[in-house]
Amino acid sequence: MAGYVVQRLGLMLVTLLAIVTLTFFLMHAVPGGPFTSEKMLQPEIQAALNAKYHLDDPLWLQYLNYIKGVVTLDLGPSFKYAGMSVNQIIMEGLPVTAKVGFFALICVVALGVPLGVVAALNRNRWPDTLVMVIATIGVAVPSYVIATIALYVFALRLGWVPTFGLDDWRGYFLPVFALSGFWISFIARLARSSLLETLDQDYMTTAKAKGLKPGQVLFKHGLRNSLIPVVTVLGPVVANLLTGSFVIEQIFALPGIGRHFVLSITNRDYTAIMGITIFYAAVLMVMIFIVDMLYLVLDPRIKYGARGK
Questions:
Q1: What does the radius of gyration of the chain's CA atoms come to, in whole angstroms?
Q2: Is the pTM of this model over 0.85?
Q3: Helix (H) or strand (E) holding 290
Q4: Concatenated DSSP letters of 115-135
Q5: Counting runs of H as helices and runs of E as strands, what totals does the chain give?
Q6: pLDDT in tens, 19-29
Q7: Distance of CA 252 to the CA centre of its chain
Q8: C-alpha span between 179 and 247 (Å, rounded)
């Protein structure tokens, strides 16, 4: 087990180094520079800015300096926000993004899994049909369409919630609804199909034949095994929700990481683009690692580090 953990951590570091390298060279391959869009910028001023941020250094030296900064958790200064570092930009947007993402995650788990279970237990009956119709719509309709419609109906027409911002608790409703809608539907469909497959297994028939109560059969033998595919998907889902949705944060004017990322692309803030990309990749890898560890809890038959694993 310890050897597997060390191996996974090593692979995570190699993967992160590859992402840092690819992101760095892709940003430097883009025509122009971070100060190209500035109007009426004199050559002397641009040369001074390049010297200040070491953009006139050889590319290999810039790369080594950036790797050194990433190792020390310093993602560099922002090219567009004077006196701010990329670390500060991320820490400024992270609380908003994490709070909205956390509420969305609660909705995904609390609604997606139960809906899938209800649909599976009522196969080919009206609850199953109703859940699948709603889930299909939720998967098919993009989140920005859901956000736009919800904003028009509940904020502009009915006035139940504010149109933007998080000034009070009502401001969380529409962003959380738009952010979690797709994943609730996806998890419901996945939980249903996985539970249906589990219910058809021989050991489920054996458990029923032994006289176990339906609740014991469902929760002890059915759900525990059928949740493994759901947990597999929840790793990237958690990373996605906790790092924000670029479109949703733009629509509702939330000062989160996603909105900062969009603005950094618009402003050609290369260090912010690279830093936020690396941050997202790191969160995603950590969540996938946690999911792999949860497999041991859900299915003790899984043994990491054994031969052939």
A1: 24
A2: no
A3: helix 270-298
A4: HHHHHHHTTTSHHHHHHHHHH
A5: 14, 0
A6: 999 988 988 88
A7: 18
A8: 10
The per-residue pLDDT for range 33-71, each reduced to its tens digit, is 666 665 666 667 667 777 777 777 788 888 998 899 899
Which pair of structure tokens corresponds to residue 235? 């790793």
Q: Are 174 and 165 in contact (CB under 8 A)?
A: no
- Structure tokens, 229: 């595919």
Contact between 274 and 79 (Cβ < 8 Å): no
| Structure tokens, 130 | 């109703």
Burial of 34 (0-12, 13-18, 19+ CB in 10 A): buried
Nearest of 234, 102, 117, 124 to residue 176 by alpha carbon: 102
Structure token digits, residue 35: 């100060």
C-beta of residue 287 within 8 angstroms of C-beta of residue 239: yes
Using DSSP, state whether 85 is helix, strand or coil. Answer: strand
CA 140 vs. chain centroid, Å, equals 19
What is the per-residue pLDDT for 187?
92
**CB of 114 within 8 A of CB of 126?**
no
Rounded Cα distance between 104 and 182, Å, is 11
